[in-house]
Please model this.
Amino acid sequence: MTEFQSALDHVHATLSELREQGVELRASASALTRLENTPTVAKQAPEPVPSPLPAVEARPLSPAPDGSKAVRLAALRGPVLACTLCPHLVKSRTQVVFGVGHPEAELMFVGEAPGEDEDLQGEPFVGKAGQLLTKIIAAMGFSRDDVYIGNVLKCRPDMPPGESGNRKPKPAEMATCLPYLRQQIDIIQPRALVALGATAMEGLLGAVEPMAKLRGRWHDFHGIPLMATYHPAYLLRNQSLTEKRKVWEDMLLVLERLAKPITEKQRGFFLGKG
Ligand code: SF4
Model:
């Protein structure tokens, strides 16, 4: 018996045992069914999905789903870093940008996709917009190490030859990659999610609405409260205190939801000066 086969047998046995004990399993029903139906021989890697990219419900983890959140995230990282489901992005990317932060984070920020800086450094939100996000996180009383930061799309959207900058990810690209984010969220189980920008909201919920209509209220992402707010890049383009205050009010709602103490100074940020 190979090590792989032995690990799968162990997973099958553990799942049956948990079900018999009436334990609620947190993975999606389809993922569990796929796991349980996995034959006890090693499968070949799935064929790359041809373009246009269809939505993919879930993909099996490598056979180490048990253990701490850090162990489970580490088990997920390998397959994601080696993912080739979007051949056009595989061709153009420097690396896959998995996500960064505390595996036990109670707050998770979700952007749309890596940009040029993130593609080069392998970490989400490290460019100018990322630096602003870091300041927002600090103003909330956290550090980047306290929260988790990820994107709906893990590879930088490719650019037409000769063009620089970043493009918005396509809905089909985000739908193809979304199962990875869902697995990250399923492992981390944050108490609240913050979607940064309307494109991230589109990737998460399929909500094609302007941020002005989405922000300032709670949404639901598979049972986890989801706040929508402007992408930090928007604040870099619109430096008015009014817009900064809108984002800050969204963050105050997040702090209240997390039952964090809020100082009078924090409540007053960006008020009465613009
Ligand atoms: S964007 Fe996501 S699904 Fe597509 S190749 Fe990269 S990691 Fe895989």
User: Anything to note?
Assistant: The pocket of iron/sulfur cluster is lined by residues 80, 83-86, 89-90, 96, 153-155, 176-177 (CB under 6 Å). The beta strands are 100-101, 107-111, 148-151, 192-196, 218-221, 224-229.
